Amino acid sequence: MAQGYGVELYFDPALENQVLKAWNVLARRQISTQLIEMESRPQITLFSSPTLDPPKLENVMKNFASKQEPLPLSFSSIASFPSENNVLFLAPTPSFSLLQFHSQLCDVLKKEGIEIGEEYSPDSWVPHCSVAQQVPKNRMAEAFAVLRDLKLPVTGYAMDIGLVEFSPVRELYSFPLGNASDA
User: Fold this and answer.
1) According to the model, what pLDDT value does residue 1 have?
2) pLDDT at residue 160 greater than cutoff 70
3) What is the DSSP letter of 44?
4) Which fold has domain 9-166?
5) CA distance 168 to 119
6) Strand pairing partners for 164?
7) Per-residue pLDDT, 39
8) What is the pLDDT of residue 3?
9) Which InterPro entries match (predicted)?
10) Is the pTM above the cut of 0.90?
């Protein structure tokens, strides 16, 4: 797996538990256990890069987070990418607040001289929360059927933004959005 860094959006505990429930159901059915094994955390990846300077980015992210508010999220559909990894994900309704949050983060990163790759540019970014990776092709239909049993939409809030290093996944730091720590 590639080495690099990811800027991630983390959820409130109730929403995180709903996503973990999907991970666990897929693991019990022996469809996909990769996200659990890599000790990932349910999240939406806002940006990823093979090279970043985590200490330089820390104050930038802390400042950015302090100026934001927790974001309402509604995961309203199940989808997959047409890739070799056979990734299944929950797709959030692309609200104006989520798209604006991502666009503002990209602007802040660009001001720091960080290049935003095509996959994460505001015009191309596909917000998603992975629930399974490397699902065998012959089990994709079953995985979709299992996930359809989730009571969608699943709603909650994005509460924190963090930086992880991978692989293996290791959170370097995270910050609450706005005054989320006062809640």
Assistant:
1) 47
2) yes
3) E
4) Cyclic Phosphodiesterase; Chain: A, (3.90.1140)
5) 22
6) 6, 171
7) 84
8) 86
9) Cyclic_Pdiesterase (IPR009097)
10) yes
